[in-house]
Amino acid sequence: MQFPLYSQPPIEPHGTGIAEKRLLRYVRSVGEIDPLGTRKDGLDVFLDQKVEDGYTIETRTNTHAIIARRPKGLRRFTSRADAERYVVEVDEDGIATMRPAEPRRT
């Protein structure tokens, strides 16, 4: 049976498939940013503490978040610069760091 140059021959199953499953699991984990979930777990713990300290979470991914200090009293109704917004990043070891975020664009 001949196949055109642009198509692939069908893949036929062989063996028990254990080696293929291991290889597929490895290939999937290589492309992931946080395959073991260390960064996500570190961010979860850090953000839980910051929420208790009075911050709100504006946006969040598995490795980054933007948090802001919740204004108290009538200050929440005034327009002021977003001086208390921070970007939270987590490194490969699960350690979180905070740095000032850029002001929101209007």
| Number of strand segments | 4
Strand order of the largest sheet: 1-2-3-4
Mean pLDDT: 75
Oligomer: single chain
Backbone CA Rg? 23 Å
Q: What is the helix/strand order?
A: HHEEEE
What percent of the residues sit in helical stretches (DSSP H or I)? 25-40%
Structural class of the helices, strands and pairings?
alpha+beta
Shape label: elongated
Counted by DSSP, the helix tally is: 2
Q: How much of the sequence is in beta strands?
A: 15-25%
Q: Unreliable stretches, pLDDT < 50, 5 or more residues?
A: none
Distance between the termini: 64 Å
Main pleated-sheet profile: 4 strands, antiparallel
Provide a compact summary of the structure:
This protein has 106 residues and is α+β, with helices and mostly antiparallel strands.
Layout of strands and helices, then pairs:
Elements: H1 18-30, H2 38-52, E1 55-60, E2 64-69, E3 85-90, E4 96-100
Antiparallel strand pairs: 1-2, 2-3, 3-4
Features:
four-stranded antiparallel sheet; 2 helices; alpha+beta; 4 strands
